[in-house]
Amino acid sequence: MAFELPKLKYAFDALTPHIDAKTMEIHHDKHHGGYTKKLNAAIEGTDLEGKSIENILGNLDMQNKAVRNNGGGFYNHSLFWEVMSPNGGGKPEGDLATAIDKAFGSFEDFKSKFTEAAGTRFGSGWAWLCVQEGGKVEICSTPNQDNPLMPDTGCGGTPILGLDVWEHAYYLNYQNERPKYIEAFWEVVNWQEVSKRFANNK
Q1: What are φ and ψ of residue 200, in 5° steps?
Q2: CA angle, 85 as apex, 155 and 3 as ends, to 5°?
Q3: What is the rounded CA–CA span in Å between residue 10 and residue 136?
Q4: How far apart are CA 193 and CA 181, in angstroms?
Q5: Where does residue 152 fall: left (phi above 0), alpha (psi -120 to 50 degrees), or beta otherwise?
Q6: Distance between CA 16 and CA 182 in Å, rounded?
Q7: How far out from the chain centre does Cα 131 lie?
Q8: Residue 154: predicted pLDDT
Q9: pLDDT(202) > 90
Q10: Has this prediction a pTM greater than 0.90?
Q11: CB-based contacts of 130: which residues, under 8 Å, 6+ apart?
C-alpha cells in the first residue's frame, strides 16, 4: 500500500502568529506532499514496498538517496505536525518531565540545549528529542531529512519531538531569523503528544 500524505488535525492558520497559515499550507501540501509522492515512486516494485516507514528507515541503505531523502522527509514531517498544537506550549508533566529533569537538570536547561541544537544546525536539518529503551532521553541534530531511526546518524533511540529548521519552514514569516522561529516553536509544542510518544517507546 502506498504511503499517503497525512491530514493536519488543525487548520493552516491555527498556529498563528507563531507559524503563519501560508507557510503551513505550502509546507504541508507542497513539501510534505512532494516527499510522499517521491517516496512512493522510489519504493514501487522493490522489496521495500508494503513495509512500514519505521522498518524502511531502520534498515536503510544510506546510499539509496531517493529513499533516504524522501523517506526521511515523509517520516519527519508526519511527526512534526503531530507534536504541534494550537493549544500547545507550557511544560511537559509526569514521566516525561521527570526524564527531562534527570537528563538535563531542568526543563529550562533542556529547552536551552534543544534551542542550541536547532540554532547551530548548519544549513538544513532537524533538532530532535529522542528516547532510548529504558526511558533515557537525549538531544541530537541531523542534516537534511536524516533522522535518528536511520543507521549511523550519530543519534539513537526513537524521536519523540522534532523541529524542522529548513528555511522553507520559517522563511515567509521570519526570513533569516531562525532564532525567532525556534523561540516561537515552544509556544506550540504539543506536550501531551510528546509524552504519549515517550510512554510508547521507552
Answers
A1: -80, -15
A2: 60
A3: 31
A4: 21
A5: left
A6: 14
A7: 13
A8: 85
A9: no
A10: yes
A11: 137, 138, 139, 140, 148, 155, 156, 157, 158, 159, 160
